[in-house]
Amino acid sequence: MNTANPMIELKSVTHAYKTKAGPLPVLDALTLQIPENSFCAVVGPSGCGKSTLTRLVSGLMKPNEGEVWLHDQKVTSPRPTVGMAFQNPVLLEWRTILQNVMLPFEIVKSPMSKAEAHDRAMHLLDLVGLAGFEGKRPSELSGGMRQRASLCRSIIHKPDVLILDEPFGALDAFTREDLWCTMHDLREAEPFTCLLITHDLRESVFLADQVIVLSGRPAHAQYVLDVDITGKRTLDDLYTPKAAEMLATLRHQIQVAQGRATDADAPLDGHPTKAEGAA
Amino acid sequence: MNETARKILAPIVFIVGILALWEFAVWYNQLPDFRMASPSDLFPHYAEFADLFIVKSWETLWRTVVGLALAVVVGTLIGMLMGFSRFARDGLYPILVGFNAIPKATVVPIVALMFVGQHDFNTILIAFMISFFPIAVSVSIGLSTLEPEYRDILRSLGASNTTIFWKIALPKTLPEFFGALKVAVTLAFIGTNLMEIVSPHGRGLGDLFDSARISSDYPLMFAVLFAMAALGIVLFYIVVFLERIFAGWAERAPN
Would you say domain B38-250 falls under CATH 3.40.50.200? Predict the structure, then answer.
C-alpha cells in the first residue's frame, strides 16, 4: 500500500457533539490514510460516527481536535474538488435529470465549456444506464435510477475525492449489486479517490481496496483489512473462500467493536491497525 | 370523454344544473323576491346596471390584487425570517396567531379612523391583513423543514447561503407557497369587501351591495353576490394557472 502521499489523511481527529446531557464524544483520535485513487470503505457499529467522518472530510464540519488533510492541504471549509452522495439521492424535483446532474457546474467554476459539460453529463448518464432519461423528472424514476443520477451528479465536476455516505443502503439487493458494478465501471473510466461509508460488509469487500473497521463510540480505527482481490472484480469474487475469510474477519471485528466478542475469539489471524490508540 | 373537454364541461353542467334547480325551487314555492330572488330575476339587473358592475368590479379587483401582492411580499419575508431563525419563529408565532385571531370586521372601523379618507389605502390594508398569515406560516414551514442533505449537497461544493436559498430552499417551498396563496386570494377578496360594506365609501362591489340593500332591491343584492363569486373564481384560477407554471413539477401525473 502506497502511503507516501495519501489523498485523504486524518491526523488524530477527535470530535464531540454538544447535547443537553453534556458533550457526546463521537470520534476519538481517529487516524487514517487513504492513498490517491484508492477506494476505502468504512464500516462500524451503528451510531459510531461514520457520517460524522464524511462531514469532516468534506469540510462541512470542523473537528474539535486533530486535522483533516486533502491533497496535502488542511481542510478548513468545503471545497469544490469533493463530490458527495448520500443514502437519500436528494435530487431536485423541479429539475430534469440532466439539469440535476449539471447542478455542480452552477456553483463550481469549471474549465469545461457549456457544451463540454453537457457532453460529459450525457456520457456519464449513458455510463450508468440512464441514456434516454435525461429529460425526465426525478419523480418519474425508480429509487435505483435516482441513485444512479445522484452518482453522476457527484462526479460530474471531476472531483478528486468522492465521499459516499451509504448511497446503496436503501436499495433492494439486486439493484445494489448492479450499482456496485456501476461504481467499478465509473472508476475504470476515470480514477478518483473514494471514501465509502456502509453497513454492508459484502459491499465493502467488493468495492474497496481497504476496509476500515471503526470501534464503538467514541470511534477510532480498530482494524484495517486490505482487500486482496486482483484484476477486474466480478460478483463471483464474493463467493470464493478468500472472500468468505475476509467477511468472517470483518464480521468478527464488528462484534468486537460492539463489545460482543474479544480479539481472542478471532476466527483468523487479523492484523490490528497501527493507528489504534494513537493518542 | 377527453380530459380537457371534461375540465371545461363538468363545471358548466353543474352550474347550469344548480341554477335550474334554484329557479325551480323559487317558482315551485312561489317565493317573493325579497325572500329569495331567482336566477331569471338577476339578468335584467346585470343588463340595467352593466356599467356600474364593470366599474365596481374593477375597484374591488384591483384593490384585492394589490392587497394580496402586499401579503405575498410581507408574508414571504416574515416566513423567511421564521424559517431561518428559531429565535424569530418562537418570538413571532404567538403574535401572529393572536393577530390572526382578531376578527377583521372589528379592525375596519379602527383603520377607517386611523387613516381618514384614505379609502383605497384602507381597503388594501384590510385585504393585506386578512391574507398574509397563511403565506407567512407556509413559507416558514417550507423553509424550516428543508432536509439537511439538500443543504449539504450544495454546501459541500462551497455554495453560499444565498445560493442555497435561490437554488433549493425557494423552489422547494413553492408548492406550499401556492397552497397558501389559494387560501390567501379568497381571504384578500373577503377583506376588500369587508371594508367596502362595513365602512361604506362609495367604491367596489361592496358599495353596490350596500346601495341595493338601502333601496331594498333584493334581486340586485343577489346579483352582486354572484358577481363577487365570479370574481373570486377568476382570481382563484389565476393562482392555479401560476401554480401550474411555477410549481407544476410537484403535481404527479395521474396513474
Answer: no
